[in-house]
């Protein structure tokens, strides 16, 4: 080079250790296929002075796992030096390039041709170097204040692009694809439905580009990037230009590409032994490829939006696009527009190649000539993958399919987040979905054969979408089967091999039924769970399978084997079994070396030390702010990440606080002190904050500043029941300040109920244990009935209402209420005063000398009856009005007991709490947009009512307590206590079945969803009882130790139970659950009216009985007395 680029500021910035560390810090977000990392060659660092070679790691895979510990500063320092050496070498000469390797992943089998997706990889340190360069193109990092901003180049990415969007969170190079892809699909669906109604756009167009990444000219991208950044880096242009070329051009090894050149290069490209081999287009798989893909699409979008092409409302996910256009298209006009579009793009590609460029000053002519021979040309598919659908047609044909997209979104986390029962529920649903999709595909195949030219396009697009859904549901189905079996077993492994690896005779069928991504995920799971020996056997089977596919596709060549994607990935997956990641290892060692003595000081001094560590800014003290100035471990390269990353700060504070408190350092929410000291609420609140991924340092400082660790409430030992739901608070509510408010509300509820109700001690538990049960029940309901989709704020309000909805029942009632002139009061006062007058006359009529003392005995009995009537009055008043009184309590305590909660949200908490006392139709009849509202109030009301009604098990009562106090309870309280005593549990299950009629359409509710509430009793009593009134909207059936009550519609005319007589047990439970049954009827009607057209919901209430326990005779007598049987 003519110029010394080492003097330029951009060169210095690229090689800056802080910049390289940010590339290491976000490494997990851009190493997309760690199974392709080099697992054979060591990672070396050459000493610049002595020339001595030091081995950093045995291979790239080992280094990847070791770098999960972002505080292992010694290792990271060596990696930074290695990267700096490589970057100096790369920039020292235009001929020096990063080396890449290409692995070939099975893609499809079209037109009798086996096709592969080439995926590129490089040495891990080279990937880090590439991102170090890429950082300077994508971001403007301020090392002084720790702020990351998007660069001018990144700001060019339009708002309607969703794939691989640059993230200003230094932990991620791009926003998480799962979040953005969900956003993309939801916006497409929402606008499709909107346009079906308002007809602002008349046609939906889905476009796909042929071989997008290999078709992009590096020269075109070079010119585009330099043009856009020429002013931003006007003083650093030579470095900028060289940096961009290093991300665009790569040399490939001959033994890698020569055997695969027919799958990698265009057919007409001639190569000779020993000749040059370079990347084709943008090397998909390397970190920069996805940004560069978006930059290319920015230009393509300009042509797409021409009126003669597809100008309209567009949504892009890299090269996939959905556009709503105003024109009504047919097959001819659609194809004409694509041809016009391809003509424009072809002219643009030719111009980009012929445009004058100074790239020749930074890339050797041989490299440029090689790329010229590749003949870059971007083109959209004219048929097949590019489709159009009239909006009015989508209403009939895509409406049901769009419901599948909702199921896809709901199911996306099934394999990781649900408990054992949820797995069974989900598995049944997935099997039913798979069955109806398979039936629909079979019908559409027949329809496609006889379709006209125009309608064939619609049918083909529907088939494409349905096949995608089938593969998705099949994958989830198989994953859940593995979990249901407790992990992989021989039968499941044999099933996997039969489906994927054995008897492969027809490649068309294999690719239609299977998906390469699903195949990879499934074998990865088997390798992870199986023994190492079995995993190695499976890896060999996968290698043999790929070789067999090559033979069937007429691609067999032993020289190809080394670069088969699945063989490489599965062998690395076996190696990963022996590797582990511990992101806290170095921090724990650091804490023990520096703060071990703090474990033994008292808690007050521990808090002083922690506050000092959190707030001190003066040296030489060790604190979080001193670290921001000097770097963690006084390493300069950590400064920017230390200032900018909440996650980096959180891990340090978490380990510091955990270690001085004697708690095992991790992100787990299971806490146990190794020094056996009592766990206080202050400590729990701080750890809950520090183990929450949504941590923010400024908010945490404010939290610590206001926490009163000397307050007696904060010094209380924690309630272990809180730990049962703490992880649910964090996973559903997320915000640390909201999680803390829930902890305080739990503590408050426990304190209020500490000694039971202050007046009415005959109540069953309505304390924090009841609240925890309601939280679990409400989550169970949202998991089983997936129509209830809640937001973070919804969960927060719901959980608060679970704690506070019964709060008035613990408060001593206002005894002065009896003197008010209300209807009920007048009646009871008049009645009691009359009785007292009569009793007083009788009392005075008995002679004082009566030897039987009947005068005093009768008077005592009378006073006791008066007491019971007055007590019963207040018991009834509290019970009848507790929902309203609780809501009033919540609203009036916003500045006192509930001052830790936001007043604006308290009104919602009060409404939800009050709703559990509403009439059923006052809730289900509410007008609501439900999940589209800021707060899904109607959902929350339904959920808390159901959860409250389902908390009926015997863990709310104690037999011995009941036995000792039975005769002192009112008959109503006796009935409820005994009913709880005989109830072991109530479970909510959902069973899914696909309709046997395969001709049933997707919009005709082909799937039945049976929601079963199974009540398990420990008593049996099947004697007949006289039936005074027939039950409405439910049908009763007795069989096999189960009383089945089928919930019917609530609208008139209502069905009546057809049984002439009733068993005592049925009568008993129907009375006990007299509020639950109407609730289920209303829920049944509601789900029928709002659920999607795929699923028909039925609800059953099943009473399971057994005679393991003999109920005390007097208890059963009281039940019969209450039931009047």
Question: How is this structure best described in words?
Answer:
The protein contains 44 helices and 18 strands. It is an alpha+beta fold and 1125 residues long. Helix 1 packs across helix 5 and helix 21 packs antiparallel against helix 22.
- Inertia-based shape: globular
Distance between the termini: 103 Å
Mean pLDDT over all positions: 86
Helix content: 40-55%
Tally of contiguous helical segments: 44
Strand fraction: 5-15%
Number of strands: 18
Notable features of this structure?
single chain, 1125 residues, alpha+beta, five-stranded mixed sheet, 44 helices, 18 strands
Describe the structure concisely:
The protein has 44 helices and 18 strands. By secondary structure, it is an alpha+beta fold. A five-stranded mixed β-sheet has the order 12-13-18-16-15. The protein has a four-stranded antiparallel β-sheet with strand order 9-10-7-11.
Write the layout of secondary structure elements.
Layout (H helix, E strand, L loop, with lengths): L8 H7 L1 H9 L17 E4 L6 E5 L2 H7 L6 H19 L7 E12 L2 E9 L2 H15 E4 L4 E4 L26 H22 L4 E5 L10 H12 L7 H12 L2 E2 L1 H4 L3 H4 L23 H17 L7 E6 L2 E6 L5 H24 L10 H9 L13 E4 H7 L1 H13 L2 H4 L2 H30 L3 H32 L5 H12 L5 H7 L2 H14 L2 H21 L12 H12 L8 H11 L7 H13 L8 H7 L8 H6 L1 H16 L19 H10 L6 H10 L13 H13 L3 H17 L15 H17 L7 H13 L18 H23 L8 H39 L10 H13 L4 H5 L12 H13 L9 H7 L5 H11 L1 E12 L12 E11 L6 E2 L8 E6 L2 E6 L14 E2 H9 L3 H15 L4 E10 L8 H11 L2
Parallel strand pairs: 3-8, 13-18
Antiparallel strand pairs: 1-2, 3-4, 5-6, 7-10, 7-11, 9-10, 12-13, 14-17, 15-16, 16-18
């Amino acid at each position: 080079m003519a110029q010394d680029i080492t003097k330029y500021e951009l060169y210095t910035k690229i090689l800056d250790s802080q910049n390289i560390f940010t590339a290491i810090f976000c490494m997990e977000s851009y190493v997309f296929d760690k199974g392709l990392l080099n697992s054979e060659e060591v990672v070396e660092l050459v000493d610049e002075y002595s020339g001595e070679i030091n081995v950093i790691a045995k291979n790239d895979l080992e280094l990847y796992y070791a770098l999960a510990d972002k505080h292992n500063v010694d290792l990271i320092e060596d990696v930074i030096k290695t990267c700096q050496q490589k970057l100096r070498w790369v920039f020292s000469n235009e001929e020096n390039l990063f080396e890449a390797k290409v692995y070939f992943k099975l893609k499809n089998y079209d037109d009798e041709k086996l096709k592969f997706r080439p995926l590129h990889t490089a040495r891990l340190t080279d990937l880090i170097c590439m991102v170090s360069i890429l950082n300077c193109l994508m971001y403007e990092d301020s090392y002084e204040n720790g702020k990351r901003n998007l660069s001018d180049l990144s700001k060019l990415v339009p708002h309607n692009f969703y794939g691989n969007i640059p993230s200003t969170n230094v932990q991620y190079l791009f926003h998480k694809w799962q979040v953005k892809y969900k956003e993309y699909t939801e916006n497409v669906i929402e606008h499709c439905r909107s346009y079906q109604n308002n007809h602002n756009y008349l046609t939906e167009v889905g476009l796909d580009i042929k071989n997008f990444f290999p078709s992009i000219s590096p020269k075109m991208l070079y010119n585009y990037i330099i043009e856009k950044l020429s002013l931003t880096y006007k003083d650093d242009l030579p470095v900028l230009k060289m940096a961009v070329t290093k991300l665009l051009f790569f040399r490939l090894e001959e033994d890698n590409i020569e055997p695969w050149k027919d799958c990698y290069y265009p057919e007409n490209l001639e190569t000779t032994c020993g000749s040059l081999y370079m990347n084709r287009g943008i090397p998909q798989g390397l970190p920069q490829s996805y940004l560069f893909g978006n930059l290319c699409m920015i230009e393509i979008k300009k042509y797409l939006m021409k009126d003669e092409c597809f100008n309209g409302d567009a949504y892009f996910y890299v090269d996939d696009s959905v556009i709503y256009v105003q024109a009504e298209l047919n097959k001819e006009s659609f194809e004409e527009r694509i041809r016009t579009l391809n003509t424009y793009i072809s002219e643009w590609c030719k111009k980009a190649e012929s445009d004058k460029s100074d790239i020749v000053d930074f890339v050797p002519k041989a490299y440029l000539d090689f790329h010229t021979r590749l003949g870059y040309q971007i083109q959209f598919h004219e048929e097949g993958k590019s489709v159009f659908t009239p909006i009015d047609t989508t209403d009939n044909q895509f409406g049901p399919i769009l419901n599948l997209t909702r199921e896809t979104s709901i199911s996306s986390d099934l394999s990781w987040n649900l408990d054992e029962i949820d797995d069974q529920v989900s598995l049944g649903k997935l099997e039913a979905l798979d069955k109806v999709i398979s039936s629909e595909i079979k019908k559409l195949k027949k329809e496609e054969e006889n379709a006209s030219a125009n309608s064939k396009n619609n049918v083909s697009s529907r088939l494409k979408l349905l096949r995608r859904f089938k593969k998705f549901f099949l994958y989830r189905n198989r994953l859940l089967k593995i979990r249901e079996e407790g992990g992989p077993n021989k039968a499941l492994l044999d099933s996997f091999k039969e489906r994927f690896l054995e008897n492969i005779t027809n490649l068309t069928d294999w690719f239609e039924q299977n998906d390469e991504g699903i195949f990879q995920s499934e074998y990865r799971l088997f390798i992870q769970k199986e023994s190492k020996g079995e995993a190695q056997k499976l890896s060999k089977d996968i290698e043999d399978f790929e070789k067999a596919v090559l033979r069937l596709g007429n691609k067999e060549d032993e020289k190809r084997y080394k670069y088969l994607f699945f063989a490489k990935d599965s062998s690395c997956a076996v190696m990963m079994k022996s590797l582990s990641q511990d992101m806290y290892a170095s921090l724990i060692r650091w804490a023990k070396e520096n703060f071990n003595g703090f474990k033994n000081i008292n808690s007050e001094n521990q808090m002083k030390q922690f506050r000092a560590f959190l707030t001190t800014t003066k040296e030489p003290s060790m604190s979080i702010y001193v670290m921001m100035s000097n770097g963690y471990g006084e390493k300069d390269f950590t400064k920017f990440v230390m200032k900018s990353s909440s996650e980096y700060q959180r891990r340090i504070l978490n380990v510091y606080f955990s270690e001085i408190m004697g708690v095992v350092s991790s992100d787990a929410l299971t806490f146990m002190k190794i020094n056996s000291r009592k766990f206080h609420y202050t400590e729990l609140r701080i750890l809950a904050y520090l183990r929450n991924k949504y941590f923010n340092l400024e908010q945490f400082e404010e939290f610590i500043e206001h926490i009163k660790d000397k307050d007696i409430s904060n010094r209380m030992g924690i309630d272990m029941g809180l730990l049962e739901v703490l992880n649910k608070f964090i996973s559903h509510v997320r915000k640390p300040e909201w999680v803390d408010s829930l902890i305080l509300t739990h503590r408050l509820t426990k304190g209020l109920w500490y000694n039971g109700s202050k007046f009415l001690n005959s109540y069953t538990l309505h304390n924090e244990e009841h609240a925890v049960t309601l939280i679990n029940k409400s989550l169970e309901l949202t998991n089983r009935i997936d129509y209830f989709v809640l937001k973070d704020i919804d969960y927060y309000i719901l959980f608060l209402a679970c704690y506070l909805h019964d709060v008035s029942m613990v408060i001593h009632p206002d005894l002065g209420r009896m003197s008010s002139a209300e209807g009920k009061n007048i009646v009871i006062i008049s009645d009691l005063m009359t009785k007292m007058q009569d009793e007083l006359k009788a009392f005075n009529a008995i002679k004082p000398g009566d030897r039987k003392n009947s005068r005093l005995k009768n008077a005592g009995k009378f006073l006791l009856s008066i007491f019971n009537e007055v007590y019963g009055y207040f018991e009834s008043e509290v019970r009848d009005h507790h929902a309203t009184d609780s809501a009033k309590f919540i609203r009036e305590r916003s500045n006192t007991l509930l001052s830790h909660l936001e007043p604006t949200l308290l009104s919602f908490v009060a409404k939800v709490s009050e709703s559990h006392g509403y009439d059923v139709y006052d809730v289900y009849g509410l007008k609501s947009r439900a999940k589209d509202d800021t707060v899904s109030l109607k959902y929350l009301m339904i959920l808390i009512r159901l959860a409250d009604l389902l908390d009926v098990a015997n863990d709310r009562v104690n037999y011995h307590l009941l036995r000792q106090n039975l005769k002192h309870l009112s008959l109503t309280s006796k009935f409820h206590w005994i009913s709880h005593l005989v109830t072991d549990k109530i479970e909510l299950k959902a069973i899914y079945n696909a309709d046997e009629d395969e001709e049933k359409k997707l919009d005709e509710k082909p799937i039945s969803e049976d929601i079963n509430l199974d009540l398990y009793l420990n008593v049996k009593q099947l004697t007949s009882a006289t039936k005074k009134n027939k039950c409405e909207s439910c049908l009763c059936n007795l069989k096999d130790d189960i009383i089945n009550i089928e919930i019917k519609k609530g609208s008139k005319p209502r069905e009546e139970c057809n049984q002439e007589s009733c068993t005592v047990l049925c009568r008993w439970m129907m009375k006990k659950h007299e509020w639950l049954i109407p609730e289920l009827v209303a829920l049944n009607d509601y789900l029928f009216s709002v659920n999607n057209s795929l699923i028909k919901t039925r609800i059953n209430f099943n009473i399971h009985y057994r005679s393991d326990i003999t109920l005390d005779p007097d208890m059963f007598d009281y039940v019969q007395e209450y039931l009047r049987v």
